[in-house]
Structure formats: C-alpha cells, structure tokens
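BUG: 3D viewer hangs when loading the predicted structure for this chain

Environment: internal workstation, default settings.
Expected: structure renders.
Actual: progress bar stalls at 90%.

Input used:
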Amino acid sequence: MSGAGYRLYGAPGWGSVLTEAMLVQCGAPFVFENVEGFDTPGETRRRLLALNPLGQIPTLILPDGTVMTESAAIALLLAERHPDAGLAPPPDAPERATFLRRLVWLVANVYPTFTYGDYPERWVTAAPEALGAAMVEQRKTLWLWLESQLSDGPWVLGERFSALDLYVGAMVHWRPRRAWFADHCPKLARVAERVLALPNLEPVWNRNFTPSP
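Structure tokens produced before the viewer hung:
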C-alpha cells in the first residue's frame, strides 16, 4: 500500500474497509494511515480531527489534497475517476437508478444502526444496552428487506458487479454476522461469499477481519 495517489485514514475492521476495498478494486495507489483508537481521546484522534472535524473514518485525501468523507460520496467519486473498476453502473445503464437507491439506502438506514448501536451509552443514560439490542434487531429487519429485493443473480444488482457488493462483503462481518446471514439472508450471504473470494480483494479482507465461518 505505497506510492503516490490517495491517502486513506482508517482502522482495521472499521468502516474504512469499504474505501480500502474500493481503492484496491480501482487499482489506485494509496497509502493507508492507521488511526486505530481514533474514537477515544488522544493524539491519534487529534490527528484525525485536524482533517475531519467529525472524527470519522473513512477519511480520504485525494491526490490534489482535497479531503473526502462519507463512504457513498467516495464510492461515487471513485466510480467517476476509475470507470473500468465497475463500482457503479454508468449513468445510462438500466441498473443506475437501483444502484443509487440502494447505495443511499445502505448509508442512510443500515449504517446509522451501527452509529447508535455500537456506543449506545453515548446517546442514552438509561438502559443503553436496550438501545444497542434494538439497533441489532432493526438492522436485521433492514437486511431482510434488502434480501427480498434481490434477484437470483450473483450480485446485489443481479448480473452487474458494483460497490454495493463491497458493502455487503464487509458488513456481513459485523453484527448480526455471517452465520445469521447464511440462515436468514441466503442471497446476501452468497453475494458476500463471491466478494470475499475475489483474489484482488483477499488481502483487504485479511487485513481487516479475522476469518469466521
């Protein structure tokens, strides 16, 4: 992960894996800046806050020095800059509308369940564990809805690979985890298995996740 180009601030196993996988899929040179521990006070967090005042990852520095945040925005930008990577259908493709809807749906609906569920004590003072559990159940409901929308094709968009598949490949590692997907969302589980088996992305998954059944 060296060479001129992009600079990605992230932490193994966190949401920055999405952008890391996208950059690798694009074949784009980048440097990975490990800011593990960014969510607690200290020098690492201060370093990230200097770039992204929200203190969130992924934070991506473009070759011209522009700071990019928000994984969906990054996905769309990289799709424009690296069209051969297949991160998004072109504007005139029949799958384009579905791609945009599902991408925004993921970051607007599924992702917030991690924001509130992983650190419930930040948001409520009474029974934070109840909020955390409720977020996991809501997440299951959301995944079940997406499962109901998929065809029998190999990818989230059917026959066309996209960044949506990278989201699924990463997010099955997070609660409710892969065994639940295998039991309740077999189409999504199959998408994940295909993404996790892509040779060019195998190092990304290995850097970020402990192998699990």
